[in-house]
Amino acid sequence: MVDLSRRGALGVGLAAMAAGFAGGAGAAAPFFKRTGLPIGLQLYTLGGDLRADVDGVLGQVAKIGYRTVELAGYLGKTPKELRASFDKAGLKATSSHVQAEGNGPEPTLATIDRVIADSKVMGIEHIVLPSVPMPAHVDAKARPGEDIVARFARVYGQLTADDWKATADLLNAKGKALKAAGMTMGYHNHNAEFMPLPDKNGGGTTPLEILLNNTDPKLVTFEMDVGWVVAAGADPFALMKAHKGRFSQMHVKDVKATTKPNFAFQQDPTEVGSGIIPWVKLLPAAYAEGVRGFFVEQEPPFARPRIEAAKLCFDYLDKVVA
User: Fold this and answer.
1) Where exactly are the structural domains of the chain?
2) Exposure winner among 11, 49, 233, 271, fewest CB in 10 A?
3) How many other C-beta atoms can be found within 10 angstroms of the C-beta atom of residue 48?
């Protein structure tokens, strides 16, 4: 972890991390052309613009050059309708974020058979749990005068090591069902997973360490959200090295140097290539550690229309020699 008292030095710290990693600088061709991997887009990036005009916006996504996408919900459509929209745009949906449980019309990990059936229709191969399910003992209700940052800090601060171990058990169980169907189970981090747990709950470890150490590598993989790793003050290079082979997908997300290390869902977002994350070093490092699914994702607030931001991210990644 980066020393949180040195908040202004996050960009310098990342530069130092990258300097110690060999490879990338001498590559002769752009990273994605050299590896033959597509540049993907997490559709959450597009927000309500996408839901308002699914076919039109997906057409713009494909025109930019994206070839794969990751779902974060069904956008008010059926799996068959979504597949038709993807096919029309010339896109492949290879991954999908699925909540642990819920009361809405979309399937959850609690209805894993339906998740599998829907995924087969859409062509999805990877299912990712986007965040920890909240156990009944957690008081998640907003309190008067409490801003969103304070609320997140309070809510996630109530989670114990046993709660995170229960999530690991859930991932193992659902991973077994997905593996039998020829699919994979993954987990996506935010920055709350790097919050040190009290000794009485977890021996001073972090939630992410609990998830990594209590899931079966044959059943569960991880999707590293680099922006949230950095927002936590953590080192994405060291994380991959310490857990070789555990990360198979990545959210390619950049942040500004003004981002202060925290565990409460705060970051100062920017388009990929215009922030502090050293992609020239990180992309080949991730590839060397087994990452094969790369999805651009950007958090709000946006300085420009979301589709324009998505294009800036793609244009950088399409040319970056790494």
Assistant:
1) 7-319
2) 49
3) 7
Q: Which two tokens stand for residue 171?
A: 């991932």
The SS3 of residue 314 is helix
CA-based nearest residue to 322, from 283, 294, 274: 283
Q: Name the CATH superfamily housing domain 7-319.
A: Divalent-metal-dependent TIM barrel enzymes (3.20.20.150)
Q: How far apart are CA 104 and CA 165, in angstroms?
A: 26
Q: Given this model, what pLDDT does residue 28 score? A: 83
Tell me the pTM.
Answer: 0.93
Task: Please say if the pLDDT value at position 2 is more than 50.
Answer: no
DSSP string, 91-107: -EEEEEE--S--SSSS-
HSE-CB at 18 with a 13 A cutoff on CA atoms is: 19
How wide is the angle at C-alpha 66 spanned by C-alphas 61 and 68, nearest 5°?
105
Could you give phi then psi for residue 121, rounded to 5 degrees? -65, -45
pLDDT score for 153: 86
Q: For the segment 73-130, what is each residue's pLDDT rounded down to a tens digit?
A: 999 999 999 999 999 999 999 999 999 999 889 999 999 999 999 999 999 999 999 9
Q: What is the mean pLDDT of residues 179-198?
A: 96
**What is the length of the chain?**
322
Token readout for 222 is 């991880």
**Three-point CA angle 285, 302, 254, nearest 5°:** 10
pLDDT band at 12 (very low <50, low <70, confident <90, very high): low
Residue 278 CB partners (closer than 8 Å, separation 6+): 14, 15, 17, 18
* CA 266 to each of CA 90, 140, 209, 228, 321: distance values in angstroms, whole numbers, following the listed order: 35, 18, 21, 8, 30
- Given a contact cutoff of 8 angstroms between Cβ atoms, the answer to whether 248 and 217 are in contact is no
- Look at residues 297, 284, 285 and name the one whose alpha carbon lies nearest to residue 240: 285
- Indicate the DSSP class of residue 46: G
